[in-house]
Write a structure and sequence with these properties.
Layout: H1 6-9, H2 17-31, H3 40-50, H4 56-67, H5 72-108, H6 112-116, H7 119-144, H8 150-165, H9 170-183
Helix pairs in contact: 2-3, 2-5, 4-5, 8-9
Length: 187
């Protein structure tokens, strides 16, 4: 018997439904080491463009919600799963996305010291770090274009100054922007 090829492994994703939710969540869980922002472009492509489970604006809201809660990657993929298939989809997505990191901690924990001292592993991580920065930058612009109101672009600029120039925290920027967003309709 032969092991299934990559195409066979993607078969659950064909046609959408819970198989597609599990496939998207598995990719998120397997590829999001080092921070959730790295996986945003892939998750956005699947949730918005491949399966059409949500709009760009809804995806941006899911990312924002994930950033103000513990476990931002699992929270974001759970919102995507919920949009795709309700409560069951959200729970399935969270479980499947969490599983790879759980397995890696259990299996890799005893080998951590050896990996820290391995020059090849460190070289891989150095290269992956550069790619992660590119992925984060590549996800920023498409998400920004999902904004529609002029005041949202002003908030984006203020948040950029707050985070990049003043080097303040992400949570405070999200909370402040959320408060402003809640107050804008009142005026």
């Amino acid at each position: 018997r032969h092991a299934p090829g990559p195409a066979a492994l993607a078969l659950p994703a064909v046609g959408g439904g819970l198989g597609a939710v599990a496939w998207v969540a598995a990719k998120v869980g397997a590829l999001s080491y080092g921070g959730g922002f790295v996986i945003i472009p892939l998750m956005r492509q699947d949730a918005v463009h491949t399966y059409g489970w949500m709009t760009d604006a809804q995806f941006l809201n899911a990312v924002a919600l994930g950033q103000i809660t513990p476990g931002p990657v699992v929270q974001t993929v759970a919102v995507v799963g919920y949009a795709a298939a309700g409560l069951g989809g959200g729970l399935l997505a969270a479980l499947v996305a969490f599983a790879p990191s759980f397995v890696m901690v259990i299996a890799g924990g005893p080998r951590l010291r050896r990996l820290r001292d391995d020059d090849k592993a460190q070289a891989f991580l150095t290269g992956a770090g550069a790619a992660a920065i590119g992925a984060i930058a590549g996800s920023t612009v498409p998400l920004a274009w999902s904004l529609h109101e002029p005041w949202q672009f002003v908030l984006l600029g203020l948040a950029a100054v707050w985070l990049l120039l003043l080097r303040r925290g992400v949570v405070s920027a999200l909370v402040a922007a959320g408060v402003v967003g809640a107050l804008i309709p009142l005026f």
